[in-house]
Write a structure and sequence with these properties.
The chain is an alpha/beta fold and 250 residues long. The chain has one domain: Vaccinia Virus protein VP39 (Rossmann fold, 3-Layer(aba) Sandwich), CATH 3.40.50. The protein is built from 9 helices and 7 strands. It has a 7-stranded mixed β-sheet with strand order 3-2-1-4-5-7-6. Helix 4 links the parallel strand 2 and strand 3. The longest helix is centred in the last third of the chain and has 20 residues. The protein is globular, with a radius of gyration of 18 Å. The two termini are 33 Å apart.
Length: 250
């Protein structure tokens, strides 16, 4: 579909190309502070992670916060998922799995927390994909979305050294004012819509790059870390992520 910047073949190749997916998720996993606060303050009992394969956040919520979690994705590789669960001391029965198309699926239940980390930026109609999150959300429930900020230095790195991956992202949506406006248009109570993380750069295909390119990326990383240590602020120019948190009105 025209709205979608990726397809099943892309995700099959993407995940099967990664040799080290079976990692142990620790209690300080990325965005752990935000998720812990949401679960405790909002008394979250159930959650669904959209576009979440291989399920790292589903595992985190189950393993450390005791949330009954569902993993939903257009692509699920059972073999990879089983390895990741086993690495984290979980059984396949510990997390509910739904493999389906979010544009076709009609939710059979609603959840206290709906989250996605790295999903909405793969679609051109940002409001539509966020609205589909809300179909899974209980009244009074919490929406938590993160996405990369490719309007930053990291975005320049992506565009320069991995343009194929860069073009799989809808760069226009990576703006906090724009995203907050969508949340408000959808009648949500916005708690957060901001840049997150002082600085980071990465490449999905780093192992395929020359030693010279790797050295250059490392130098950019070091320079940015020094700058943000001296000026410890989060910004559109340097922050690697955007974080959204909102609640559905009762």
């Amino acid at each position: 579909m025209e709205n979608q910047l990726t397809d099943r073949k892309f995700w099959t190749n993407y995940w099967e190309s990664k040799p080290d997916l079976a990692i142990s998720i620790d209690k300080n996993y990325l965005f752990h502070q935000q998720l812990e606060e949401i679960v405790k303050k909002q008394q979250i009992k159930t959650a669904i992670e959209l576009g979440g394969f291989p399920g790292y956040y589903s595992i985190f919520l189950t393993k450390y916060l005791g949330v009954k979690t569902t993993l939903f994705d257009y692509f699920i590789h059972p073999g990879i998922l089983k390895k990741v669960l086993n690495k984290n001391g979980l059984q396949e029965s510990d997390i509910t799995v739904i493999e389906n198309d979010i544009f076709q699926y009609k939710p059979e239940q609603k959840y206290d927390l709906v989250l996605s980390c790295g999903l909405i930026e793969h679609f051109k109609d940002t409001k539509d994909i966020i609205e589909r999150h809300l179909e899974f959300l209980n009244p009074g429930g919490t929406l938590f979305i993160t996405l990369p900020n490719f309007r930053s230095v990291n975005g320049w790195v992506q565009k320069t050294f991995d343009k194929d991956n860069y073009l799989k992202h809808y760069i226009d949506c990576m703006d906090t004012v724009y995203l907050e406006g969508i949340l408000k248009d959808l009648n949500l109570e916005v708690s957060q819509a901001g840049y997150w993380g002082r600085y980071s750069v990465w490449l999905e295909n780093k192992d395929q790059k020359s030693a010279l390119t790797k050295a250059f990326i490392k130098s950019i990383w070091i320079i940015g870390k020094v700058i943000t240590k001296l000026i410890p602020v989060e910004s559109r120019t340097l922050s690697p992520y955007i974080v959204l948190e909102a609640r559905k009105k009762q």
